[in-house]
Design brief:
Layout (H helix, E strand, L loop, with lengths): L11 H13 L5 H14 L5 H11 L5 H18 L5 H13 L6 H18 L7 H9 L4 H18 L5 H14 L6 H17 L8 H9 L7 H17 L1 H4 L3 H12 L4 H14 L3 H8 L3 H11 L4 H6 L59 H16 L4 H12 L4 H13 L5 H4 L3 H11 L5 H13 L1 H6 L2 H16 L4 H18 L7 H14 L2 H18 L6 H17 L7 H15 L4 H27 L10 H17 L4 H5 L3 H9 L4 H18 L7 H10 L6 H18 L7 H12 L6 H17 L1 H4 L7 H8 L6 H16 L11 E7 L2 E6 L3 E6 H6 L11 E4 L13 E7 L3 E6 L5 E5 L7 H9 L6 H18 L1 H8 L4 H10 L38 E5 L6 E8 L2 E6 L3 E6 L4 E7 L15 E7 L2 E6 L4 E4 L4 E5 L10 E7 L2 E6 L3 E6 L4 E6 L5 E7 L6 E6 L3 E5 L7 E4 L2 H4 L1
Antiparallel strand pairs: 1-2, 2-3, 3-4, 5-6, 6-7, 7-8, 9-10, 10-11, 11-12, 13-14, 14-15, 15-16, 17-18, 18-19, 19-20, 21-22, 22-23, 23-24
Helix pairs in contact: 3-4, 3-5, 4-6, 6-8, 7-8, 8-10, 10-12, 12-15, 14-15, 15-19, 17-19, 19-21, 20-21, 21-24, 23-24, 24-27, 26-27, 27-29, 28-30, 29-31, 30-31, 31-33, 32-33, 32-35, 33-36, 35-36, 36-38, 38-40, 39-40, 40-42, 40-43, 42-45, 43-46, 45-48, 46-47
Length: 1210
């Protein structure tokens, strides 16, 4: 093929050959299609082949539309594979010719053009085609409707595929207003494409719409009465997206929106109804708003959702519901869903509430409706909506739902009955309390429905019963359990494959709930499962493996009986031998064998060696393939890493089950080197499984790891990222296992480990298993590395106790609590003494909060200070804690510059550690120790020496604080906790007498100060969230409401923050105000206060009075200050402004800016002023660069000064 780029012309003979090739490609003959494909592959080697394809698409108007469109689709595939290698002139030709066809009269050609355009943008970026969007926008201005539709279609596809490439300045500021204009187009297709395009943008970036949101909403609402189906669908999608990004803009209209969505959820077009139904799921993401908005509408919404859960006539046909017995029909390959192995997560199986997965997916294993379809549809969406909404409204659902259930469950129409059973299952979790009185009637009904003549009813009944297994297991076996087990086992062998699948899944759930209660029935269970191996087709075998593995997990070593071992292992090993190394059925089989090996312990030894050898071979082969793919990416694809993961997990199961019996196999293999390679893999799942195996081998045969443990520890430390939950979890668990074997040798790694472990421990709403493992590992580190860990007790003690309070007595729990007790012995006070200037003050109720130059937060009881001012040297803080999690003296600067209160029990503070503001709890430390007591009380039978440790801690604390304080403190305890501690620990909560011999307050040689602050049990200052945005240190904070505060920074700005979003909603650049002078030292804003509509602020800049809302300067304070003086603090109160800075003077100004008076303080620089309004004792406190806090009853003399260095002088 020949030709020049810009003047390219096709050679007629070659053009005709390509056209004929396109015609032949549509032949039904397989051999013809194969020949065509081979020829296409050959032609793709020639760059000019793309020119022929685009020429046919755009120029051959008389050619068949199917051939022209096919040329475009082949061109799209060529672009995807070859675009970067095509000469520039050919790329330019393809672009120009493609756009020429954008107004073609045939919709198929216009759509194909849009596909080609977006494919080019995806592969080269929008920046490489700068004229594209301006050209398309220009086409939208045309009067040619076909040109408009073609251009809008291309824009929509670009937005769908590449909205993240579009920037406000270059693209969106022009494009979005243009799209909004078409919301009112007379052509429905243009309206729909315009709304769809904006939705695609909104899905990935919301900021470009912020400034025009009101206009956007107005245009959207105008479409409510639009008669076009696609417009209605896109409108529903837009409103759903806005719930996440701009809920505040929708709140006032939520009532109308809910009514509209109710109507659209019942739309005759299922696609539109599905989009509307998504709205309920999105609204449920904000439970408080959802409850307020939907409560009045529940009587309408619930019946609509239940109706939408019925199978349609088309569903019934597609599911072949008339075929009751299809168990002998082989599965088609497309019927078998892709199965992705979930890498092993190390869990604490001793929790009181087992079965909580780290990242549960509602739809993943609980496929609502069990309709054998992976496609998300209206039925599934409605059931999921009913589920999550019932979790929000709980029993408020039932007055409307119960009559519906009564009608549907017993309906003669099996389709209606089936939907009622589905609804009953969907609300199981949310309405369990209210449903419980009805379950004695409903459970037998459901069990009987397992024999229904319709397979779809039997299958959904299996699913619904699985949702109520917890109730069944809680009651006498003769009531429900035996009958349910019998019927489920019968359904596992049902003649219908869909019922088999549902029954197997339901039985796996029953196994998880029943655990050891299954042991008496193991013979019948195993006989059924083994028979299922003989009957099941390929798809259901995958679920059968899961049921067998779950059985092993649930009954554990009870499977280790000769008759059970032989029965179970025979079909499993037969499958093991029949599968090749690259057969994906190995995934579930290996998972199953991992659980079985763990349960059988030494009984698995006869099968161990071939399994171990094959797994190590799989790992080695896969790692070699990974290396080859990395070195030669153009020649080799990356291998399927699931083989790697499942092999690691099976070896982990072998190590856990066989313990030290695995030693000879490890010794004669390269498994340690393979684990090391896997621990460096880019795949999180591979690392996750490698860490699980590392931990299990540490327990089973640590001596094989010891020579290279120094290589593993940095890798484990680098994987403590809680955003990768399971990787982090397994890494922490492995660290704990290594720590138990490594002893004092672990000390060198503690400084690098602790910050991450403490961060994970305090993570809000962290996964239960992750928190349990983190707590156990911290406790285990405390056994041999107590001196390194004990100083940090205040930063994790409460979260630690909460994480382990529900753990059953066992070795892991014991080791963790031993470590905790040792750390409390070393650090009973839990905090360091202070001697540093106070930079920030704030009063909240009776508590005066202080922040100092060393980054510490501490607090005094204001009533005690003012009532006992003559005995101030006896005053002690009620708590002390590191504000930024940094040990004092280890890093500078990190002073606390400002503290503000937020609501009744929250603080916000900022300083010089970084440029962020932190939101923290402000609770008193005496609220902390109760959690330690609760954790101690969680033990049923601690070892005698551990029980003695607990007793000493409790008695020591009681003796130290005295009788009156102890009674007041323990009065907060729940009665069961008091009674349990009294019984277990010699009346520990009774009278003060009877302390442990050796003296209270000296637990194992504890430091002076005793246990008045056991373990530094401090909650005040625990960070809840962090607000980032300032480019300089945060100097001052002011609270406006529970949800809004204002900050001032060294970057010369004042920012307004929303605590609900952790985002800045406004920015005022104080440093840009020309009327204010600077001191020549910078642009920082240090002093800030707000009263009503007025704001005072200053720093390196003159102090000025501003209108807060508009950010307008009113007046400048008339200050006779030194040219280099810096204003550090200002307070507004009763028409006056108090100000301090790099001077010993406290200044008073009027709102007009006049200087009223000045008084001298104890400091040479004033950092903080607080107007304390404790009833009957109003005064002003001032702190600065001394160790004194001055208290003024009136602004003329110092009433008294409080020293903050007393703790250090003890």
């Amino acid at each position: 093929m020949t030709g020049e780029a810009f003047e390219w012309r096709p050679i007629p003979e070659e053009l005709q050959q390509v056209v004929q090739l396109l015609q032949h490609s549509q032949s039904p003959d397989t051999q013809t299609q194969r020949s065509v494909q081979e020829r296409l592959d050959q032609l793709n080697m020639h760059p000019e082949f793309c020119c022929y394809l685009v020429f046919i698409l755009s120029e051959l108007k008389d050619e068949q539309v199917a051939n022209r469109s096919l040329a475009g689709l082949i061109l799209k595939n060529s672009i995807r594979l070859l675009w970067s290698r095509l000469p520039e002139q050919i790329r330019a030709y393809v672009k120009s010719k493609t756009l020429l066809a954008i107004s073609d009269p045939h919709p198929l050609i216009r759509a194909t053009v849009g596909i080609i355009v977006t494919t080019i943008v995806v592969h080269e970026g929008i920046a490489q085609w700068p004229s594209l969007l301006p050209t398309l926008c220009g086409m939208l201005d045309s009067q040619d409707t076909l040109l408009q539709e073609g251009a809008m279609g291309a824009i929509q596809k670009i937005c769908e595929d590449s909205a993240d490439m579009l920037t406000p300045q270059e693209h969106l500021d022009t494009l979005i207003p243009k799209l909004l204009c078409f919301f009112n187009s007379p052509h429905a297709k243009l309206r729909a494409l315009a709304v769809n395009s904006v939705n695609c943008i909104l899905l990935v970036q919301t900021d470009p719409l912020n400034n025009i949101m009101d206009v956007f909403l107005q245009q959207l609402f105008s479409l409510a009465a639009d008669t076009d189906t696609e417009v209605q669908k896109q409108l529903c999608r837009a409103l759903t997206l806005l719930l996440d990004s701009h809920l505040d803009k929708l709140v006032s209209q939520l009532g109308n929106i809910v009514e509209f969505m109710l109507l659209r959820t019942q739309d005759a077009n299922e696609s539109t109804a599905l989009e509307a139904c998504e709205f309920w799921l999105a609204l449920a993401e904000n439970p408080a708003v959802c409850k307020e908005a939907l409560l009045p509408h529940l009587p309408k919404l619930i019946p609509v959702l239940v109706r939408c859960m019925r199978y349609s006539e088309m569903d019934v046909l597609m599911l072949k519901s008339d075929v009751e017995d299809d168990s002998a029909v082989p599965d088609r390959q497309e019927d078998i869903r892709p199965r992705f192995h979930r890498a092993k997560t190390q869990t604490q199986r001793h929790s009181e509430e087992d079965g909580t997965s780290i990242d549960p997916e509602y739809m993943e294993d609980d496929d609502v409706g069990d309709d054998a379809s992976t496609e998300w549809n209206l039925r599934k969406c409605s059931a999921a909506s009913l589920d999550v909404l019932s979790g929000i409204f709980n029993d408020d659902f039932l007055p409307t739902l119960l009559p519906i259930l009564k009608e549907t469950l017993f309906h003669s129409n099996w389709l209606i009955k089936e939907s009622g059973i589905l609804a009953l299952g969907a609300v199981a979790e949310g309405c369990m309390n209210g449903m419980t009185p009805h379950l004695p009637e409903l459970i037998p009904f459901l069990i009987n429905s397992l024999q229904d003549r319709k397979a779809l009813v039997r299958s959904i009944t299996c699913w619904t019963l699985s949702r109520y297994c917890h109730f069944v297991v809680q009651h006498d076996h003769n009531l429900y359990f035996k009958q349910l087990l019998k019927e489920l086992l019968a359904r596992i062998l049902d003649g219908n494959k869909r019922v088999q699948e549902a029954a197997c899944s339901a039985f796996a759930t029953l196994e998880e709930e029943a655990n050891m209660e299954l042991v008496p029935y193991l013979s019948e269970i195993l006989a059924t499962l083994v028979e299922a191996f003989n009957r099941y087709q390929a798809k259901n075998l995958l679920i059968l493996y899961d049921a067998v593995g779950t059985l092993a997990d649930s009954v554990g070593s009870n499977l280790n009986q000769p008759q059970y071992v032989q029965t179970l292992m025979e079909p499993l090993m037969a499958k093991w031998s029949s599968l090749s190394d690259d057969d994906k059925e190995l995934f579930p089989l290996l998972e199953c064998l991992s659980s079985v090996a763990t349960a059988l312990h030494v009984a698995f030894l006869p099968f161990c060696e071939p399994v171990f050898r094959r797994c190590t071979a799989l790992i080695g082969r896969c790692l070699q393939q990974v290396q080859v793919a990395l070195e030669r990416p153009n020649e080799y694809d990356m291998p399927e890493k699931d083989f790697l993961i499942v092999a690691l997990d099976l070896l982990s199961g072998l190590a856990e089950g066989l313990t030290d019996h695995i030693d000879p196999l490890v010794a004669s293999s390269q498994i340690v080197a393979l684990i090391y390679q896997c621990s460096l893999d880019a795949s999180p799942e591979v690392r996750q499984s490698s860490f699980a195996l590392l931990g299990d081998l540490s327990k089973a045969c640590y001596h094989h790891l010891q020579p290279c443990i120094h290589m593993f520890m940095p890798i484990l430390t680098s994987n403590l990222n809680p955003d990768l939950i399971s990787v982090c979890n397994n890494s922490i668990w492995a660290i704990g296992e290594v720590a138990m074997k490594m002893g004092e040798g672990m000390r060198q790694y503690v400084p690098a480990l602790l910050p991450s472990l403490i961060f994970v421990m305090n993570r809000e709403k962290g996964p239960k298993t992750l928190l349990e493992n983190t707590a156990i590992t911290l406790g285990r580190l405390g056994i041999n590395c107590s001196a390194e860990v004990a100083p940090y007790l205040p930063q994790f003690i409460r979260a630690w106790c909460l994480a382990l309070r529900n753990i059953r007595d066992n070795e892991e729990k014991e080791s963790a609590f031993r470590g905790l007790c040792i750390m409390i012995n070393i650090n009973p006070a839990g905090v360091l003494g202070l001697s540093a200037p106070v930079w920030a003050l704030r009063q909240l109720g009776d508590i005066l909060y202080c922040g100092d130059a060393r980054g510490m937060l501490f607090a005094y009881s204001w009533s005690q200070l003012t009532a006992n001012s003559a005995r101030l040297n006896d005053s002690k803080p009620v708590f002390e804690v590191s504000a930024f999690g940094v040990e004092p003296g280890k890093m500078n600067p990190h002073e606390v510059n400002s503290i503000e209160t937020l609501g009744e029990n929250k603080l916000i503070y900022g300083g010089a550690f970084d440029n962020a503001v932190r939101l923290a709890d402000s609770e008193r430390p005496d609220k902390e120790f109760i959690f330690l007591c609760d954790a101690i009380a969680s033990w049923n039978h601690p070892q005698p020496d551990l029980k003695m440790m607990f007793s000493r801690i409790l008695h020591g604390f009681r003796q130290q604080v005295g009788d009156a304080n102890w009674v007041a403190f323990t009065s907060q305890f729940p009665i069961p906790l008091k009674q349990r501690l009294n019984v277990q620990y010699d009346g520990g909560l009774g009278k003060v007498g009877g302390a442990v011999k050796g003296g209270p307050g000296k637990v194992g040689g504890a430091a002076k100060g005793g246990l008045g602050k056991v373990g530094g049990a401090v909650k005040g200052g625990r960070v809840i969230s962090t607000f980032n945005g300032h480019e300089g240190n945060v100097n001052e904070l002011v609270t406006r409401s529970e949800h809004e505060f204002v900050s001032a920074s060294e970057d010369g700005t004042v920012r307004v923050w929303d605590t609900r979003t952790a985002q800045a909603s406004r920015l005022i650049r104080i440093c840009d105000e020309p009327q204010l002078r600077r001191n020549g030292c910078g642009i920082g804003v240090c002093a800030l206060d707000i009263c009503g509509s007025l704001m005072v602020c200053g720093g390196d800049i003159d102090l000025g009075l501003w209108l807060f809302e508009s950010g307008t300067l009113i007046t400048r304070m008339q200050c006779d200050r030194e040219p280099t003086m810096r204003h550090l603090v200002a307070k507004m109160d009763s028409g006056r402004i108090l100000c301090g800075g790099t001077s010993s003077q406290l200044f008073e100004y009027s709102y007009s800016g006049e200087h009223v008076t000045s008084v001298k303080t104890s400091a040479s620089a004033v950092y903080s002023i607080e107007q304390n309004k404790f009833p009957g004792r109003q005064m002003t406190t001032v702190a600065g660069n001394s160790h004194l806090i001055d208290a003024f009853l009136c602004l003329g003399y110092v009433s008294f000064s409080l020293s903050t260095s007393l703790c250090a002088q003890e």
